[in-house]
Amino acid sequence: MDREELTRLLADTVEAVFVFLHQRYAFFSSVFRDYGLNYHQYGALMLIYLEGRVSEGQLARLLFLNPSTVSRMVYALEKGGWVNCFRDERDRRKVWVSLTSEGERRLDSIKRKQAEYLAEQVDALGPEERERMYQLASAVNRDLRTLISLYEKEGRSSEEGDGD
Prior knowledge:
By secondary structure, this protein is mostly helical. The protein folds into two domains: about 20-125, Arc Repressor Mutant, subunit A, CATH 1.10.10; about 125-155. Helix content is about 70%, strand content about 5%. A three-stranded antiparallel sheet has the order 1-3-2. Helix 4 packs across helix 5. The radius of gyration is 18 Å and the shape is globular. The N and C termini lie far apart (about 45 Å). The model has no long low-confidence stretch (mean pLDDT about 90).
């Protein structure tokens, strides 16, 4: 497969994943609502989970949101027991955010519900298609994690440009 074919295939795959998830938006939204969250709050929690801790400024850049919007969102998440906030020792203007143990537990529960739902969707396929989906999902997951690792080794992390 040449580069152009790969590029077309990846573009088609990104589109298919988007459409698949968009069609099921109501389910995902209902799960977030069950936990008192909206999509942006869920996105923030996932980023905090993936990073371990982030500053409010980083979170604003990663979510493409206004810093004051993120500050209000973080306050609501803290009030709801999802996150802990603490000021930076060297720069008291900087606020760091991390998940609470309860926030981690609830986020794991959300991810489990999402995975169970997606597994139910795959159940609609025949046995051979399900096995192929399993093999492909395993390979894509493995290869994406390899690309993520390479990206991080190159020094491209979410902390780039963290000037706050």
